[in-house]
Specification:
single chain, alpha/beta, eight-stranded mixed beta sheet, 12 helices, globular
Length: about 350
């Protein structure tokens, strides 16, 4: 069996909540990430999806060690980095790089584009000044920009161009893993397609592995190889994309798919949207955290917390009754809509990947 590039084991991040004078009295704990496990192979795209506040961005920051985990293991290239001190972690940072959600806030407005892309190489002592300038020009061409753009400042670019600059900066150190935290959610739909096409091309060319954080399931369906659905700090379903969209087994996954807009006024939803709000991570109820919003909840769900278990090869679900729940009729149809400019290109790339395997 091939060793995964990244293996996350029972990853946990709890934040203490304090109140009172000078915040001296601890009153509770927020369970932002509560026992997340998954693996990511070289050249693979794993998407983490879920509604706002489910813990997917916190998971991404933990993987990058921008946050220190409370418990669990983060095994990257065969080495557990969860407890590594900064000095030992620094060489490994070259192999894992982020692309942030907001292209306007993630670039220093006082630095030229050339300096922004060159800075990671300078920090890690890679090459001389002339070599780094040539590398900057190469990276700009790679992401669809021109070498002369290196002399400009971020405010002189559009949102899509800024995200390309952020991608070029992430590639400056030749990483193996790129963590993409909702990289297209702040962009227009047409620009989203261009950036996603670029990411897919770069993955094919450079053999990158992507941890792709997103909430748009229609886009995720076309760019991800496998999908992990998170709810209240935990993974509730994990499967390859075909299985997840054709036969979602967790009620929360089914509700997410049913909520995707369908561009056909004649087609009616086969399943109602979720009612109510998710429980607070400050006070997680016993048993299944989803039971207050689940139409299939039973007494066992109130008492026993479901564990993520394999119900079929490669398909894991955290639900006591995953095998017996009815499948929604329109789960796969509702997820079928994607911008035409994106759908055709990504479908061709997916076919090329399958042919390589």
């Amino acid at each position: 069996m091939t060793t995964p590039l990244l293996a996350v084991r029972d990853l946990t991040k709890h934040f203490a909540v304090s109140r009172g004078v000078l915040l001296a009295r601890r009153t509770g704990t927020v369970r932002a990430v509560d026992g997340v496990s998954f693996e990511l192979a070289e050249g693979e795209t794993l998407a983490l999806v879920g509604e706002s506040g489910c813990g997917k961005s916190t998971t991404a920051r933990l993987v990058l060690r921008l946050l220190d985990p409370t418990e669990g293991a983060i095994i990257f290239q065969g080495r557990d980095i969860a407890r590594l001190p900064s000095a030992a972690l620094r060489p490994l940072r070259r192999a894992m790089q982020p692309v942030f959600q907001d292209p306007f806030a993630s670039l220093n407005p006082r630095m030229t584009v050339g300096r922004i892309i060159e800075e990671p190489m300078e920090v890690h002592g890679i090459g001389g000044a002339a070599w780094r300038r040539a590398r900057v020009a190469e990276l700009l061409r790679l992401v669809g920009l021109a070498p002369y753009h290196a002399e400009r400042f971020p405010h002189q670019f559009s949102g899509g161009q800024r995200q390309r600059i952020g991608i070029a900066r992430a590639l400056a150190l030749d990483p193996k893993l790129v963590v993409l935290d909702e990289p297209v959610s702040a962009l227009d739909v047409s620009i989203q397609a261009q950036v996603l096409n670029l990411l897919a091309d770069l993955q094919d060319r450079l053999g990158l592995a992507y941890l792709f954080i997103a909430h748009d399931l229609a886009v995720v369906r076309h760019i991800a190889d496998r999908i992990a659905v998170m709810y209240l700090g935990r993974v509730v379903e994990l499967a390859d994309k075909r299985t997840l969209y054709r036969a979602p087994r967790h009620p929360y996954t089914q509700a997410l798919l049913a909520a995707i807009p369908v561009p056909d006024p004649r087609r009616r939803r086969a399943a109602p949207l979720l009612s109510g709000d998710p429980p607070s991570p400050f006070d997680v109820p016993p048993g299944c955290a989803f039971r207050s919003r689940c139409a299939h909840a039973r007494d066992r769900c109130r008492e026993e917390r479901p564990q993520l278990r394999e119900i079929a090869p490669g398909h894991k679900v955290a639900c006591h009754y995953a095998e017996t729940l009815p499948l929604p009729e329109l789960a796969s149809l509702a997820a079928a809509h994607v911008p035409p400019a994106l759908s055709h290109r990504l479908s061709l790339q997916a076919a090329r990947r399958a042919a390589k395997v």
